[in-house]
Amino acid sequence: MKGEPLLPSSIMAGIAAASVEFWRENPRGGWATALLLLLLLSWHILSSLARRRRRDRRGSASIAALTVAPPPKSDFRIAQIISDDDLRELIDDLKGKFSGNERWENVIDKRNNLMSYNAKCMRPKDGPPKYLSVTIFENCSTKLLRDFYMDNEYRKEWDKMVVEHDQLQVDAISGTEIGRTLKKFPLLTPREYILAWRVWEGPDGVFYCLIKGCDHNLHPPQKKYVRVGFFRSGWRIRKVPGRDACEIKMVHQEDAGMNVEMAKLAFAKGIWSYVCKMDNALRRYPLRRHHIRSIQLPLH
């Protein structure tokens, strides 16, 4: 804040002008009045300094109070965002029990010595395209793959689309977590995701995860980003019988504000390169495995 002058300029100019004028009219006795004016000026200066010190102390106290005050507690309830009904719906989707008469179209089917990837797509009557994919990683355990998928800090290193990720809230009772992710795409405004997720552990080392879009009062929408409104994704990780390999099967839907046909074409052209990059990051992951904070609940 810009400080006020010690005395308003009009008062200073008035005192100086009065002193000069008095000496002109009374050259012999002006010293007494000059002394009085000097005392008056000193009193104004000292009073102004005292007021400034009091104001500065009040300002410092206010700043100190802001500095040490704890952040406001969020009353945002997350326990009901993802329920067991969502898990049952996810399991049905992964089994292929979709509602309606969906017509699926094969998008890609590729493999190499370390992995294979298959994806198909369908266009529901309402909502964005839905993708169903199966990826099999050789020489990989289910727990390693689960940790890899849930490690958002490591994802920022290998996934160049992810530029920011922040954990916003955790509910230890329900196992639901909320985070914010910012992604950048070529020639497009960055996309902002506010996502809730929940992990379940089933028998025989099977893991399920459901991720869905939500809102959070710590991050209202911003004009410089496109907030992704609809997002629903889920996966199941399980061991491939009779092999040292594991499989992740995923169903995914999101509306990122892109042209549907262009998004589908970009997916078909770029997904294999992305999956290969992901596989390379997975192979390096055991050397720099982070502690995973995600909470997982047992299946009932």
UniProtKB/TrEMBL annotation:
Gene Ontology MF terms: lipid binding
Cross-referenced Gene3D superfamilies: 3.30.530.20
TM regions (residue ranges): 31-50
PROSITE patterns: START
One Gene Ontology cellular component annotation held by this UniProt entry: cytoplasm
Domain START: 101-287
Presence of the UniProt keyword Membrane in the record: yes
Official protein name in the record: START domain-containing protein
